[in-house]
Amino acid sequence: MARTIKSVWRQPARTDYRIEFIRHMDGFTEPEVLHVVAGAFESLDDAVAEGNQLWPSIHDARGAEGFRVSPNGGKPIAHRFRGDSRL
What we know:
Oligomer: single chain
Number of strands: 4
Radius of gyration: 18 Å
Strand order of the largest sheet: 2-1-3-4
Helix content: 10-25%
Number of helices: 1
Shape: elongated
């Protein structure tokens, strides 16, 4: 008789995050959103890493001063701006 092998591997849980590349404008409290990337990431750290990878090219093309990450439909929970050495 043939044996069936069952795999214990499962797709990692993913969360939808929205990465907004922004710049501040004088006289406005909310920054201008220059570009948005949305997708499913395994963790917040992965979403921030994606923002870090894309930021230089979006800064060169559109002048983004930073980015913020939020769960889709939520408030920003992470951010990085020019000169920020924490990330």
